[in-house]
Specification:
The chain is an all-alpha fold and 237 residues long. It is built from twelve helices and no strands. It is globular, with a radius of gyration of 17 Å.
Amino acid sequence: MNPLVAKLFQLTRRCITKRHISDFSPADPGYESYVRLWTRIFCSGEIPKQSEFDLSEVIGLTGGWEPLTDLSQPSRFRDYRRFTSSVGVALITFGNDSERVRVANYLARDLIVDVHISDRQHFDAVRNVFPLIRETLIQTNHEEEYPFFTLGSLVLAHMAGDIDEMPTLASQLIDDDASVRNNKTCNWNIQDSRFLFGLTNYNQLNRDWINLTNTLTNPTNDLNVQLVMDALAENVT
């Protein structure tokens, strides 16, 4: 396991107990097998190399819950989802297709909505894995959603007040959008001209992305940052 991924996994693992798994595993007919598998991962510290239903189903269903409205213990649930998301990160870096783990733009969103700048250890661990996941997805040459991890890095840089990094990431994001559209292996199903959002048909969490990008500012008056902000703002209308 990549050291940056291992750090995120172990950090989130230390923040939960077996009770988190029994309390928050999806309550559908697969509940018992979910609990067995995820308890084994928690106790052993070992993540399977290959994705399977009991992994992706838990990661996906957990990602779809809104802690503040759906659950009575949102803080404990976020600790649990940080753990399941870290397993998703590991599975992708092991070479599993994102669709067999958690759609890439959804996983990127999950990781960001559960960070808080006041928890610097977790925040930095998440921020450090974003470029790694982006590069892993690029290397497959068929994962068209990797620019969402570039956008995620931009959002995280802004949250951290790292204004010097923002222009580089904005330029990279513009290039990434163009690269996907120009890659015949990736672009065969892209018929939407919208910046970034047009790269995917998985749009259930677009509102969350819009809310995240609406927080962006351009303190250095960088042209590329402004271009990204303006292009993303068009997705609102």
